């Protein structure tokens, strides 16, 4: 089975301007994901997709094997990610040949470990499932302490439990998708527009490695956690 890693990094960002190339722990943020992919020793290619020439240049400097210029229509604030990944795969296959498994790494998740990537990949390979996502145990339970307003403005639990839940520990177990690692069989990636299907499996990661940088506060917290893990 031939596998490739894809890293999709737009040039623009509203929450943290230029975050994908901003220095994080001494390196451009995207460099951490590239290095993690290379260390896995399971990928025939490590491809970076971006609408930004600067992002692609930095990715090349830090070891990306394939640079894919993403069309602007796939790089807007409202563009979904799956079409961008598909475009990246097709472009890589033009020179590297058909692949069987795609592992997408979000560049805004620098706290993941190489082992997280490997374990998610192994889960797909061992089970033959169509795809694997990663997540951590939810801090707030939709069955216990997550609420929402209905169409009449009335407040209630986001998800009604089958029986009365008086302690969070008694609620059904839920997970937050952390957007860190996505693993697909090629057929599944190109046949479904959602990352979740009845056959999707989840690789659990601790919340200390699940922070997805989407704000200045996230950036500061991620750097703190990164340096704490390194000591």
Percent helix: 25-40%
Helix-strand string: EEEHEHEHEHEEEEHEH
In whole angstroms, the N-to-C terminal distance is: 37 Å
Strand content: 15-25%
Task: Please work out how many helical segments DSSP would assign.
Answer: 6
CATH class of the largest domain: Alpha Beta
CATH homologous superfamily (4th level) name of the largest domain: Spore Coat Polysaccharide Biosynthesis Protein SpsA, Chain A
Corresponding CATH architecture of the largest domain: Alpha-Beta Complex
Order of strands, widest sheet:
5-4-1-6-10-7-11
- Decide which structural class fits the backbone: alpha/beta
Which radius of gyration do the C-alpha atoms yield?
A: 19 Å
**Number of extended strands:** 11
What value does the average pLDDT take?
93
Shape, please? globular
Give the low-confidence spans: none
For the largest beta-sheet, the strand count, sense and barrel status come to: 7 strands, mixed
Q: What name does CATH use for the topology of the largest domain?
A: Spore Coat Polysaccharide Biosynthesis Protein SpsA, Chain A
Number of domains: 2
Structure description:
The protein has helices at 29-40, 53-61, 81-96, 114-127, 186-191, 216-230, and strands at residues 3-8, 23-24, 27-28, 45-50, 66-69, 101-105, 131-137, 147-149, 155-157, 175-185, 201-204. By secondary structure, it is an alpha/beta fold. The protein has two domains: 3-135 and 176-230, Alpha-Beta Complex (Spore Coat Polysaccharide Biosynthesis Protein SpsA, Chain A); 139-173, no CATH class. The strands form three sheets. Strands 5-4-1-6-10-7-11 form a seven-stranded mixed beta sheet, sandwiched between helices. A two-stranded antiparallel sheet has the order 2-3. It has a two-stranded antiparallel sheet with strand order 8-9. Strand 2 (23-24) and strand 3 form a beta hairpin. It is globular, with a radius of gyration of 19 Å. The mean pLDDT is 93.
